[in-house]
Description:
Elements (H helix, E strand, L loop, with lengths): L1 H22 L11 H6 L6 H12 L2 H14 L6 H26 L4 H9 L2 H32 L7 H21 L2 H29 L2 H4 L2 H5 L16 H15 L3 H8 L4 H10 L1 H19 L12 H9 L2 H39 L5 H25 L2 H16 L2 H4 L10 H21 L5 E6 L2 E6 H22 L30
Antiparallel strand pairs: 1-2
Amino acid sequence: xxxxxxxxxxVAVLGSASLLAFAAGRxxxxxxxxxxxxxxxxxxxxxxxVWLLLGGTIYTAYTFAAVPGLVYGAGAIGFFALPYTIVVxxxxxxxxxxxxxxxxxxxxxxxxxYVRGRWGSHxxxxxxxxxxxxxxxxxxxxxxxxxxxxxEVGGIYPAGAGGDAILALVFGVLAVATFRSGLRAPxxxxxxxxxxxxxxxxxxxVAALHRLxxxxxxxxLGRLDAPATPVAFAASxxxxxxxxxxxxxxxxxxALLVYPHVLTAAFSASSARALRRCVIAMPxxxxxxxVFGLLGLAARSAGIEAPLGNGEAALxxxxxxxxxxxxxxxxxxxxxxxxxxxxxxxxxxxGTLFARNIYSEYLHPEATPRTQTRVARVTSLVVKVGALVxxxxxxxxxxxNLQLLGGVWILQTFPxxxxxxxxxxxxxxxxxxxxxxxxxxxxYLVAEGGFSAVVDVSVGAAETQxxxxxxxxxxxxxxxxALTPVLDRLGVSRGVDATASNGSRTTTRFDLGPQGRTA
Length: 519
């Protein structure tokens, strides 16, 4: 009976969100479908709508399960996500509105559009587009893994084909809604996600404090030091991990802002001012994430025994042990909805990148706006189907490893995107060579370290651990800076900066017309 009631609560939440996603189709105002309307909702969202969409995109269901899972299993190091999501917003306050202004002025839809316009390089834009696609696809698979973990703990995910069919059905509803409505579908679901996630954070925290006898029970070292599972746990951060902690936070913050799905959500804002107001309020999402992280400690203190190597299950297991069946189903439904928003935005971003910067640029330069939109829609479906195949066919750890690589790869696009907003001194050839160097170095470091996020680095006689992506970024920047004077001396063209408005350069608008190329 308990499982049936849990399922009832889960279906109620997920069904309501699905109906809302389908309702997004009624909000379309474009008579002739264009890529800008489908992918960015015509850039019409105000500060509150963007806050919900951007927060729902950045703070994924996997994040809300992985952070408490990491805290549950490893302790203090798991809280690196908090400074990471605090450091990111001053940078976002400067970068996102400026990037929005340039993109809106010149009709850029994707980050690769901006890179092509700023650096005058089709090759660099292609590199950015391909990197974005590679980094995004395993991210979508992680959202599926998050949903599956919740379903398994709730007993709603039967073994074999039956469980796979349920997961495919949940994701299929999202795929159809996104295909029809583009970004409008996750934007509406984000409203539900925001309300549900905040309610879950408050409700489960109150129940946990009651179970453990107050805050003291959560931080009881006697309970924490008695491992619920045989894993290394540290209630305080080891000094030898300070460098790893700091570089993880800094590198992750810089990488976050150049992910295609984050920029897609940001580009949907109605103005740079609305985007600034949204960013000012974004730390509220970090406060919610902090509560989820503390629930990882609470789960450990409560004696929850998550499977070895699957700390992400700790929070769902704690919820199932803590709450009545119906409320457990509602919480599980909220976590599943939390995965739908980022998965939808990621698929929209991937589809737009392919249609705009690969298909229209190299395969069909004469593509009309309708054709571009159709290709983006189909690609978004392919991304979702690919994520399902990945989850069904490979181990969950494979998706995690690829996502780790994706984080390393996407950070190598930071110089082309962010530095292009504040300096014109680097040569486009140097930036492209730096990107290639960073990709090679980062991939080698991660693979050589057994797919670990941090690698050992020797500084004189001392050894420390550093986030591999930061090392790759340093190599990236070193090559870009070193090659710039060499290429200038050789007379290699810097290209035309389409975003410049001074007398020596021409401002070019990237429109949504049938050419799909710059004028």
